Amino acid sequence: MVNSLLGRLADALFPNVCCLCQWRCPGRLPLCADCRNELAANARCCRRCALPLASDSLLCGQCLQAPPAFDRVVAPWLYGEYFAYILRRWKFQDDLALTPLMADLWLRSADVTVLPDILLPIPLHWYRQWRRGYNQAELLAGELARALPGLPVDAGRLRRTRATAAQSGMDARQRARNLQGTFTVTGSCDNLRVALVDDVLTTGATAREAASALRQAGAARVDVWCLARTPPPQ
Ligand SMILES: [Zn+2]
Ligand SMILES: [Zn+2]
């Protein structure tokens, strides 16, 4: 009773503002129902890499030709204009209050039936993390683990051992070459079912490289949990 009164008082004193339309919104998360409805779900996609597909095929061409080292990407949202706006605020403008919203967007829409043994955030190179002050994938993994009790996070098991050139503007082949040998695994992953956590999957080159390092370290299954997937290049 006292808690609910205090909660209502806090809502009245510090109302939430929607991060998209800037109107007041009820509830603890800064996204109103109307704006949430504007986000596009990644409903029809490759069963393996979550690439949005125009047809009802189960797998995309790339997964058919060269299956990736990961088993499945779970990416419930499309990286559209509104999603990109929220993500930029979270990732590059230090609006870390958006972390619970990001986790909520994943948790309410992700189709996951079996949980992994451990969550491993995709690491940033130490220099980039030092410059940014945080790794958004690690924040997201921590928030997901809080909502899924018993699921540990290990932000140190996978390391990015060399800095890679910024990848925007590179095609899939250039990204793959840029990333070769980037990740090392510290400790064993023997028979572990791992979920890699990241914000957005673009070409999937980072996830492929990280997953193959984990496979070499003995992981039995590697899934990739991310918020959104970019559409295929035109
Ligand atoms: Zn709104
Ligand atoms: Zn695919």
Automatic annotation (TrEMBL):
Annotated ranges, domain Double zinc ribbon: 10-64
Domain Phosphoribosyltransferase as annotated: residue spans: 138-229
Database matches in InterPro entries: ComF/GntX_DNA_util-trans, DZR_2, PRTase-like, PRTase_dom
Pfam families per UniProt: DZR_2 (PF18912), Pribosyltran (PF00156)
Similarity comment: Belongs to the ComF/GntX family.
Protein name: ComF family protein
Organism, as annotated: Seongchinamella unica
